[in-house]
């Protein structure tokens, strides 16, 4: 099998777009005092109060040790609280504090502005096509891991 130039590798283009998005989100979130992983955790916690760290790690696409570090930092900032589950004492439930909810809302407003500006670079049809193509990429790559 012959080598393929980087310019022809779809993975390189997907990675470049992901890195550019993360850099832009980091810049947008910096004034809110949050990193992208912290923002992602707050966003998911806002929708899933009481979620475990392991489930939150899966939702955010990071490893459990990484999520534990993110949660420790958020707890030190007073943005989340972790309490033992009512029935499963070895599981900590994580919830936003009122300050965490304010931080999530402020950061989300910044992230949404960025997402809307990015979306505005495409027509409605192009956005739908892009979402469909990226979905196909993800579906194929997820199925190829198990097959």
Automatic annotation (TrEMBL):
Family annotation (InterPro entries): HTH_MarR-typ
Domain HTH marR-type as annotated: residue spans: 7-139
Any one Pfam family match given in the protein's UniProt record, by short name: MarR_2
Recorded superkingdom: Bacteria
Keyword presence, Metal-binding: no
Record-given protein name: MarR family transcriptional regulator
Keyword vocabulary terms for this entry: DNA-binding, Transcription, Transcription regulation
Coiled-coil annotated residue ranges, if any: none
Keyword DNA-binding (UniProt): yes
